[in-house]
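User: Before I run my own analysis I want an independent prediction to cross-check against. Here's the chain; please return only the structure tokens and, at the end, one sentence I can use as a sanity check.
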Amino acid sequence: MAQVPRDADSFYVQDCRQVQNNTHSIQTLTGQISRLVGTMEAEKDFQHCRKMVDDAVRQASETKAILARIREHQHQAQNTAERNNRRMMYQKLSDNLAITARVLEDVVRRFTAEERRRVGGSGGVFEAPGIAAADVAGGNDQKPLLSTGDQMDTALQTDKVQTLRKVDEDMLCLQRIYTDLATAAEEQASSFDTLESHMARASADIERGREEIEYTERYNFSARLKRRIWIGAAGLGTVILVTSFLGS
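Assistant: Structure tokens:
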């Protein structure tokens, strides 16, 4: 059985539902991250929290892309009322996502502070092992070798630095999301104000045109009435003259 092709309205409804579901999911993850930040102790807790942060930021980015489609759906509305409804729906969904992104950013900032505190408390600076005095006396030009433990510590430190850098990138991504949404909202509001201004001017022009038409119609009626009165008066005068002439 052939599938019936979907129309633009069904895609619009699907996108709206997807944005609502994604925003709710991000809010749930934000709450979980916030609770976990206050209880993190082991490395696995930090790893789990980092994974949830990445998931939340990824969903926020995807949701922003869907919102861009919803904004374009406004141009496919069949009439002005439907266009206004879609505009208000977009604004509502956009505001919800922007607020959620800001709250998530605050929670991620708390997580970053905990991660930095943990990295600093574990001995953030690693010094290379000293060169043995016998090697110095013998003039050995050998480079100091890191022990296995030192190599593991260095690798762990590098991994932590990369993790912090990734979290910073997530925060920048969230900032771009709510900044771009705010910019889009301002552009849409400006465009809507311009449209309303044009509609108001058009309405005023129509009203003036209607008044001019009514005035013209009243003027024409008055002129026609005067003309008929003069014609009637002239005809009556002619009849009187003829009657007087015949009577004499």
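Sanity check: The radius of gyration is 40 Å.
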